[in-house]
Design a protein that fits this description.
about 475 residues; 18 helices
């Protein structure tokens, strides 16, 4: 009887989570009805630019690039395709206004040039975050694409999944839809395993995945083919829903064992941020004490959040899937979003074994484009304005790694550096400290050994690994030369 009661209590605790998922599934079905035969459940944005044509004459395509080429006088590939049989103008893919032009004698820092630039280009809603008018991918942009206008997203990257159906769908719609549902876009395997193993959902069959509507709202995805029993047995999923919000999802109990609590279990609701509300120093809770009882905070109470969900969210931002730009903040991490995440190559690795013919261009994300308007000494640019199917292993490595595990790097013949055997190269001679509070009694560190909270935050923004604060690899300049 007691076992049945415990089972019932566990199910009652899990009921709110199940209700969240049930309502999400109901919303998913409602969206699928509105989407018709569309493979992805995404609302179309009526403000988006026109769809690029499947066929047109060379003359029509040239008209759509005429004004653009008054500044972009030479480009690597006008259509980004290797085939010269593809006739596309600049505005077919990027949008903008091809009727605006400048004379060859106009200086780039003149008022006339800047006025024409603003009239011809689609302008961002958040210019400071894009470092406008620079065209380089910004560092650590996180969810910036979700906050921008759909027209600017298309202007920056027509192959981004939010706009690729319009920009590329006339010829490549089945491929675009498949890419939206791919593991590289949804991360369903990571989220599914993490969600079950950490008690976010009680299901082993994956049902969470990342996808967005053109306006940046989280979206669900529905399989265009209804899986039968044989397909389900092989792991084919009927649909995916968005990850619940970490700040208002009722968490499971599994992490409460790490809270302070167990010595004193009272019937009073705990004071948030006031641990000694009694006050009685002898009755303070101690970490690790819930060895026989948990703290008196229930799920979703006492300002408690869903820890596993926020951890997954942070991991997604530091190691983004193809719905977002790469972090573009240090050597080896330069890439775009959408189809261009793979098919537009950036300089990321100087080793020919990993990068093949691209190795000679280094690993600092600089451009080799013929376009005179693209800065050649600025990181965050692709090598060229061109798609390719010759994708180097180094391009895969941008995403398919996660400290401190072994992924694609094992195919390259090496593993992550060893904290002990490689210590003389990876650790500073003198230990680093977060702050003065981190210094042990009796130690007398030099001022440069104290990083400070601002520096620690800067390091963790690029690399959430705890050891990065202490090691040399927190410095991008060190990473730039680590292979030399």
């Amino acid at each position: 009887m007691k076992q049945n009661n415990r089972f019932a209590r566990r199910n009652r605790r899990g009921l709110p989570q199940l209700m969240v998922l049930i309502f999400s599934c109901i919303s998913l079905v409602a969206l699928s009805v509105n989407a018709g035969n569309d493979a992805g459940i995404r609302a179309e944005n009526p403000a988006s630019a026109h769809q690029a044509p499947r066929f047109q004459s060379l003359e029509d395509a040239q008209k759509k690039s005429k004004g653009c080429q008054s500044c972009h006088t030479e480009v690597d590939s006008i259509s980004m395709h290797e085939s010269e049989a593809v006739f596309l103008g600049c505005v077919d893919c990027h949008g903008g206004n091809a009727e605006i032009s400048v004379s060859q004698a106009t200086a780039s820092d003149s008022e006339d040039y800047q006025r024409a630039l603003k009239q011809a280009h689609v302008l961002p809603l958040h210019p400071e975050q894009w470092n406008w008018p620079s065209s380089a991918n910004p560092e650590s942009s996180y969810t910036l694409l979700n906050q921008e206008s759909v027209d600017f997203v298309r202007f920056v990257n027509p192959s981004d999944y939010r706009v690729a159906r319009d920009a590329c769908g006339a010829c490549h719609l089945p491929i675009v839809q498949a890419a939206e549902r791919s593991l590289m876009a949804t991360g369903a395997m990571l989220w599914g395993g993490a969600a079950y193993n950490n008690g976010i959902v009680p299901f082993k069959r994956y049902l969470l995945g990342e996808a967005y509507a053109p306006n940046g709202d989280a979206a669900g995805l529905k399989n265009p083919v209804e899986p039968d029993e044989a397909m389900l047995a092989k792991g084919v999923l009927p649909s995916l829903i968005a990850l619940p919000r970490w700040e208002n999802l009722e968490p499971g109990d599994i992490f409460r064992i790490f809270e302070r609590g167990g010595r004193n279990i009272g019937n009073l609701f705990p004071e948030t941020g006031l641990p000694n509300s009694i006050p009685a120093i002898q009755r303070l809770e101690e970490p690790g004490r819930p060895d026989f009882r948990q703290s008196n905070r229930g799920p979703g109470t006492g300002a408690r959040i869903a820890v596993p969900v926020i951890n997954i969210t942070k991991t997604r931002l530091n190691d983004p899937f193809t719905w977002f730009l790469g972090t573009n903040d240090q050597p080896g991490d330069y890439r775009s979003s959408g189809c261009a995440a793979c098919h537009v190559v950036y300089s990321n690795d100087k080793d020919p074994k990993h990068s093949g013919p691209y190795a000679k261009f280094g690993h600092d994300g600089t451009s080799q484009s013929k376009d005179p308007t693209i800065a050649k000494n600025e990181s965050g640019h692709p090598l060229a304005h061109s798609f390719t199917r010759a994708i180097p292993t180094s391009q895969c490595m941008i995403c398919h790694m996660h400290q401190p595990n072994v992924f694609v790097n094992s195919y390259m013949g090496y593993t992550m550096w060893d904290y002990e055997s490689d210590a003389p190269f990876m650790w500073p001679e003198k230990q680093r400290y977060r702050s003065h509070y981190d210094v042990r009694a009796g130690a007398h560190p030099d001022p440069e050994q104290i990083l400070g909270h601002a520096k620690v935050r800067e390091i963790n923004k690029r690399n959430p690994e705890e050891a990065a604060i202490r090691g040399k690899w927190s410095d991008p300049e060190f990473l730039d030369k680590v292979s030399e």
